[in-house]
Design a protein that fits this description.
It is built from 16 helices and two strands. By secondary structure, it is mainly alpha-helical. The termini are far apart.
Length: 436
């Protein structure tokens, strides 16, 4: 039954995508983040729905009469340079077969990211995209929060198998980045029941993050939560929700969870933590030997550890977005990765500064604040998780770019008009112009 439902929804959306290409971005986001086909058990489980939707969206864009303008900003140009550099490091990779497979995946994701920047070009489309992403991932947060409460936090919250968010660590990171989006929707909601529903969703997602039993995600959640409180307008209400969430978590989680979290302070004797440190040393040593191109995608393999790791037999994944990028793409790739984050942050700061006091553009300032909070969550939790190619992060960057394009169109705050006298030889007159 689930197979038929997902198939009918996807194929039923194709005519709408052909007439309105931006609908394809919504459908691709739903498939990519919620992965509804992974909740089925039949033919839909492995059917390439995302590829189908992506191809139809691309065809629709080519033949659509809608404006097709790519916002070439500092952020989008830096992202393009990063992708091109990934292609270079793939050519010189230590494991070509694995690297080209990953490069193909990354290229498909980034193509849809750039299509997002072309097709999502007004406030209504932006808010709808945020809604689709937040509810797609929020589904697992709500489900996971209830699951944690019912079972007393004994079992880990995980995502659908075979996806970016399949593991408990990955699921927790995704929810940490989703909570600010849900809070943005809560701030924009017009009806009381909607605000209460979004607040409850945030509460359950927070419980689900803790229920994942991810130590790295716990640190990321603390950083994200603190920054969320600083960025919200109603700090008293936000603080109350956080206190209630902490109290609920403290009363729900079992003793085994506290014992696991205590190992954060005793990492010297924890095998998992030592494995991560070993992987980080490997990435650093590899970057010294190959500082320009690194090892390419999927370089954290047994043979690489034998050459560059302090302990050649303790093989682990990168477990850090920073060491992952450094080890795979060298210092140029690491520089572009960090530059992209910094430029996106600065774009958010500009949106907040120019739109925060304008009633008509306050939504953009609110969204920019919450996107920054999501970036904090990614940057902090990502210190201990190897998800440098997580599509959600780049999608949020694209949303920041298009929000800036839409919200900063008017040079004059509040749309004020300035009267500028202009005299001519024939006759004086008054010209109206926008304030710079």
């Amino acid at each position: 039954m689930r197979d038929l439902f997902v198939t009918l929804v996807v194929f039923g959306s194709l005519p709408y995508i052909l007439s309105k290409p931006y609908v394809g971005i919504y459908m691709w986001s739903w498939l990519g983040y919620m992965n509804p086909h992974r909740l089925a058990w039949g033919f839909a489980y492995t059917f390439p729905f995302s590829l189908l939707v992506g191809l139809v969206t691309l065809v629709a864009l080519v033949f659509s009469r809608e404006p097709k303008k790519m916002p070439w900003t500092r952020e989008s140009i830096t992202l393009l340079l990063l992708i091109l550099w990934m292609l270079v490091t793939t050519i010189f990779s230590l494991h070509p077969e694995l690297a080209w497979l990953q490069m193909e995946k990354v290229a498909k994701i980034q193509l849809m990211i750039f299509l997002t920047m072309i097709l999502i070009n007004n406030r209504e489309k932006i808010e709808r995209l945020v809604l689709v992403i937040a509810l797609s991932l929020g589904f697992y947060g709500i489900k996971g929060g209830i699951f944690t409460v019912v079972h007393g936090g004994v079992y880990r919250v995980q995502g659908p198998f075979g996806t970016f968010i399949g593991g408990n660590n990955e699921m927790a990171l995704a929810l940490i980045m989703t909570i600010p989006l849900l809070w943005f929707l809560q701030m924009q909601a017009k009806k009381i029941w909607q605000r209460h529903a979004y607040t409850a969703s945030v509460f359950l997602c927070a419980i689900a993050v803790v229920g994942s039993q991810s130590r790295g995600a716990l640190l990321g959640a603390v950083a994200m939560g603190g920054f969320l409180w600083l960025k919200t307008r109603n700090k008293l209400f936000t603080g109350l929700i956080m206190v209630l969430a902490v109290a609920a978590i403290a009363s729900i989680m079992p003793a085994s969870w506290y014992q696991r979290m205590d190992t954060i302070d005793t990492y010297q004797t924890d095998d998992s933590a030592l494995g991560r440190l070993n992987a980080w040393h490997m990435a650093f040593n590899l970057s010294k030997d190959r500082p320009i191109v690194g090892g390419g995608f999927d370089t954290f393999q047994v043979d690489t550890f034998k050459v560059y790791a302090p302990d050649p037999y303790n093989v682990h994944d990168a477990h850090s977005i920073y060491f992952e990028v450094l080890g795979e793409h060298g210092y140029p790739g690491f520089f572009l990765f960090m530059l992209l984050a910094w430029l996106t942050w600065r774009k958010g700061a500009r949106i907040i500064g120019e739109c925060g006091k304008d009633p008509e553009r306050k939504w953009a300032a609110d969204l920019a604040r919450m996107l920054q909070v999501s970036m904090i969550g990614f940057a902090s939790a990502g210190t201990f998780l190897g998800l440098a190619n997580f599509d959600l992060y780049y999608h949020l960057i694209a949303i920041m770019v298009v929000t800036g394009v839409v919200a900063l169109k008017q040079a004059a705050p509040y749309g004020r008009t300035v009267i500028t006298p202009v005299r001519t030889v024939a006759q004086p007159f008054v010209r109206r112009s926008r304030e710079p």
